[in-house]
Specification:
Radius of gyration: 15 Å
Strand order of the largest sheet: 1-2
Largest sheet: 2 strands, parallel
Shape: elongated
CATH class: Alpha Beta
Helix content: 25-40%
Strand content: 25-35%
Distance between the termini: 35 Å
Number of domains: 1
CATH topology: Macrophage Migration Inhibitory Factor
CATH superfamily: Macrophage Migration Inhibitory Factor
Length: 65
């Protein structure tokens, strides 16, 4: 029973996550012979001030997109 966890910055729309979940499911079904009912996907959305790269908070580094 595969489980996919995607950690990303907040800001994606529900529709973007819906499309990503559909495509990820399709790929794993094709490549790993996983049936969709056995696959779970979770999107973990992290605030910009709780995510750092190279020791610098993303909120301090980049303007929101």
């Amino acid at each position: 029973m595969p489980h996919v966890q995607i950690t990303m910055l907040q800001g994606r729309s529900t529709d973007q996550k819906r499309r990503a979940a559909k495509r990820i499911t399709e790929v794993l079904q094709e490549e790993l012979s996983v049936t969709p009912d056995k696959l779970t996907i979770v999107f973990v959305e992290v605030p910009r001030d709780s995510y750092a790269r190279s020791g610098i908070l993303v909120s301090d580094r980049e303007p929101p997109k």
